[in-house]
Amino acid sequence: MGLLDQPRAKLATLPTPLHLAERLSAELGGPRIYLKRDDLTGLAFGGNKTRKLEYLVGDARTLGATHLITTGGAQSNHARQTAAAARWAGMTPVLVINSSTPQPALQGNLLLDQLFGAEIHLVTSEAERAQKMDELAADLRDSGAVPYIIPGGGSNGVGALGYVAAMLELQGQLYEQHIAPKRVYFAAGGGGTHGGIAVGGALFGVDYDLVGVLVEDTSAEGIERAFTVAAWCAERLGIANPVDKAALIADDSQVGAGYGIPTDACLEAIRLLARTEGVLLDPVYTAKAFAGLIADIRAGMFTADDSVVFIHTGGAPALFAMVDMIAPILG
Ligand SMILES: Cc1ncc(COP(=O)(O)O)c(C=O)c1O
């Protein structure tokens, strides 16, 4: 089934703006940095998950779902946006949240999950998530409801369609604004965004590099994940996987001590974008991704005349749950 025929719920405010960040570009001494504002997709503070959820909720509606079940950590942006999307579609949100503490702080994303009235089921580790979701789905089926399970991060072939469509949108904007970027940067976690971008990039014949900056794991693992999701996504589209695995780029230079642990470079990026452009990055995903771009600029990869695009995938609600990390950079 081609992209246009895929069931889609019009959740997002699109197209998101693509604009030149002049002060930021000047501060970093070039290249011309364009921000693709997917933090402004709408739906409960926006972010990349809105695009994925357009296709996931579309699929769920086609199947007659009454409940959306998904999973993540206490500060999962995906869980927050899925809870909102469920309410938007008249479904009940059910969240399996893994937390090492029995009472995670009621802040940021978790606060919003509860405001959406999500049914929250705590598990102690990531390893328990999938089984718990299956159990909850079985119970719901027994009671006559129709559950629809969305994997963590919405990173499956259906969710990735959102970023195939995003590449079409980006290509149109680049054409309209006469921008020929050398590279496009974005944060990469579960691989759904990267997989969709890679499929879109291949289908629409982009001639710039697509750089997923990892927030966990190694470059080899990031490439494997993106390629796997790309294959699922192509299958959903009914085409052979158009992605050349050897051309995938997954930069693991910004992971630091691990997922969710801020690095000095990511904290510098948060402060820089806030103070030059009034744009909020988050410490888990987007600040590490932007730090990857800064590192490449400082390594001399670009001239002042080059253009690059940074796809801002959202995540700012988590800032409120990370006061201890942010406070030291306020001065
Ligand atoms: C703000 C933000 N950016 C980027 C990502 C990475 O997206 P993906 O899981 O598709 O790699 C996430 C995932 O949760 C996110 O919340």
Task: Explain what the structure shows.
- The chain is an alpha/beta fold and 331 residues long.
- The chain folds into two domains: 220 residues, 3-Layer(aba) Sandwich (Rossmann fold), CATH 3.40.50.1100; 89 residues, Rossmann fold, CATH 3.40.50.1100.
- Helix content is 41%, strand content 15%.
- It has eleven helices and ten strands.
- The strands form two sheets. It has a six-stranded mixed beta sheet with strand order 1-2-10-7-8-9. It has a four-stranded parallel beta sheet with strand order 5-4-3-6.
- Strand 3, helix 3 and strand 4 form a beta-alpha-beta unit.
- The structure holds pyridoxal-5'-phosphate.
- Pyridoxal-5'-phosphate binds next to helix 3, strand 7 and helix 7.
Residue windows where pLDDT falls under 50 for at least 5 positions: none
Shape category: globular
List SSEs in N-to-C order: EHEHEHEHEHEHEHEHEHHEH
Number of domains: 2
Strands of the widest sheet, in order across it, are: 1-2-10-7-8-9
* Strand portion: 15-25%
Number of helices: 11
Structural class: alpha/beta
Measured between the Cα atoms of the first and last residue, the distance is: 53 Å
Looking at CATH, which topology of the largest domain would you report? Rossmann fold
Question: What ligands can be seen in this structure?
Answer: pyridoxal-5'-phosphate
Q: Largest sheet at a glance?
A: 6 strands, mixed
Count the E strands: 10
Proportion in helices: 40-55%
Query: In CATH terms, what is the architecture of the largest domain?
Result: 3-Layer(aba) Sandwich
Q: What is the overall pLDDT average?
A: 97
CATH class bucket of the largest domain: Alpha Beta
- Radius of gyration of CA atoms, rounded to a whole number: 19 Å
